[in-house]
Amino acid sequence: MWQPLKNFVNSLTTYMALSPDMVARQRVNQWLRSRRCLTCDEWYRYHWTPPAVRRPLPKPLIDFTYQQLTAYSGLEIGCVQPGDRLVEDLSFPAVCWFDWSLTLCEDFYETFGLDISEHFDETQLLTCADLVGFLEQQLENQKDEEMREIGG
User: Fold this and answer.
1) In the chain, what are the helix, strand and coil shares in percent, each to the nearest 5?
2) In a domain, 138, yes or no
3) Does a structural domain hold residue 10?
4) Could you tell me if residue 87 is inside a domain?
């Protein structure tokens, strides 16, 4: 008789443990709002093209990153700077759903046709720039592999 109620309570507890921490999200967004919030195009030009980086990163990659990180985290990604730390500054494990990294891999595959799931380890990425750099490197590796196939 009590089993359905117990199952409901367990489900609710599990849901709460796996869902984003809205207090943490609000706290991080409040901190981010002290900065100018850039549009996706501005974020690209300001952070991902020279002189901020040695060479411009692919615009579709930055568009993808901006849109997907916003969707996963609920954070104002336009306020995020490349040096912001994913865990310490942005509280990514707390503000995102528990499976954000799996979703990122799936979305990356759908967008770029490249499966990064075997190589992606968010614990090895300290900053936003590290994450973008990892994704860019995966695209570069794919391009290099395609060139080798064409070359023989």
Assistant:
1) 65, 0, 35
2) yes
3) no
4) yes
CA atoms within 13 A on the CB side of 143: 7
State in Å, rounded, how far the first CA of the chain is from the last one: 69
Q: Give the Cα separation of 105 and 117 in Å (integer).
A: 5
CA distance 54 to 136: 13
Task: Give a yes or no: residue 13 inside a domain.
Answer: no
Q: Would you say 74 and 83 are in contact if contact means Cβ atoms under 8 Å apart? A: no
Find how far residue 104's CA is from the centre of its chain.
Answer: 7
pTM score: 0.85
Contact 87, 93 (CB under 8 A): yes
Q: Domain range spanning residue 63?
A: 21-151
Q: Among candidates 142, 140, 135, 130, which has minimal Cα distance to 62? A: 135
| Cα–Cα distance measured from residue 138 to residue 144, given in angstroms and rounded to the nearest whole number | 10
Which residues, including other chains, have CB under 8 Å from residue 19's CB and lie 6 or more apart? 97, 98
pLDDT digits over 28-74, tens only? 999 999 999 999 999 999 999 999 999 999 999 999 999 999 999 99
Number of domains into which the chain is organized: 1
